[in-house]
Design brief:
heterodimer, A: alpha+beta, Lipocalin, 8-stranded antiparallel beta barrel, 47% strand, globular, B: alpha+beta
Chain lengths: 223, 82
């Protein structure tokens, strides 16, 4: 009887523990932190690749703004909203860029932003050193493209860097970097383009490689 | 004269072909090229765009086609003249 009771308790604990997981940053940082993307820290950019039989397209999007909020005592509760301007997407050919922004494809006029909204982090692990913490996690949230919202989970690697003489040369505050790679299927976002193009000249799936750079916002700037 | 035109046309075909290969042997011509910049602090790579012109098969193909046509026609006319 007691043995069965212990097993039930143990299983219950194992089931609940991931929900209660609270991973600390492991650095001397206190209180809820607000990070704002800042190109002085580093160039926030999304690189995208489309692989299709007729051609491979490599492009970038660089008009990126966003804020992140997290509690250093509980990284799982990190939230973020990052917006990417569709009009900033480039592929190396002006005419192709115009097509990409047009109504047939991403419709930059009507859907001017691609939005990542992070609701929480899962599977968080941290390696903290003296002034730096490397975080690995899965960012759970929503991805909005072409006016369509999809739930998404993205494996991310993040770095928190405490302010130092070296970082001050670029910008004030602690630095925060997020790196993530993932794929999206165009049909999931109702992007069909010109007839016959998807699958021949444009890949059915697009690979995205994102690098976001930010710094902590002072209390005065948060207002 | 037709022989000279033919030789010039074939030399230009080789030149256009060499330019196409040197520009990356792409299907479509580009007016911007990616330049990778490495961030020393974080080891990340970002892309800058460099303006210019890189020949693709969309432009190079028809140009080479016309030049080959001119070259062949030149050879034909030079043989006829003989």
């Amino acid at each position: 009887m007691l043995q069965r009771f212990m097993i039930v308790i143990a299983l219950g604990f194992l089931g609940v523990s991931p929900i209660l997981a609270e991973t600390p940053l492991g650095l001397a940082v206190e209180g809820v932190q607000k990070i704002r993307l800042n190109n002085k820290v580093g160039k926030s950019q999304i690189k995208f690749v489309s692989e299709a039989p007729m051609e491979n397209i490599h492009g970038t999007a660089s008009d990126i703004v966003g804020d992140l909020t997290f509690d250093p005592a509980n990284l799982e509760e990190m939230t973020a909203r990052i917006e990417v301007g569709v009009a900033s997407m480039e592929t190396g050919i002006k005419k192709r860029d115009e097509h990409l922004h047009s109504k047939d494809w991403l419709d930059a006029e009507q859907f001017s932003k691609i939005i990542f909204e992070v609701k929480e982090l899962k599977d968080v692990s941290v390696k903290a050193q003296e002034a730096k913490a490397d975080i690995k996690a899965t960012a759970m949230g929503q991805f909005t493209l072409h006016g369509i919202i999809k739930e998404i989970s993205i494996p991310v690697e993040m770095t928190y860097l405490l302010a130092s003489e070296k970082t001050k040369k670029r910008a004030s505050g602690d630095f925060f970097v997020i790196k993530g790679k993932f794929q999206i299927a165009l049909k999931d976002f109702d992007i069909s383009g010109n007839r016959g193009m998807v699958g021949s000249r444009v890949g059915t799936e697009i690979e995205l490689d994102a690098n976001f750079f930010g710094s902590t916002v002072s209390d005065a700037a948060k207002e | 004269m037709w022989k000279a035109i033919s030789i010039i046309a074939f030399v230009l075909v080789v030149a256009v072909g060499a330019k196409w290969i040197a520009d990356g042997a792409q299907v479509f011509s580009k007016d911007k090229q990616q330049v990778v910049v490495v961030d020393e602090m974080f080891g990340t790579e970002s892309t800058e765009w460099e303006d210019g012109f890189w020949l693709g098969l969309d432009v190079g193909g028809p140009v080479m086609g016309v030049l080959i046509g001119v070259g062949v026609f030149g050879l034909y006319r030079s043989r006829q003249a003989k």
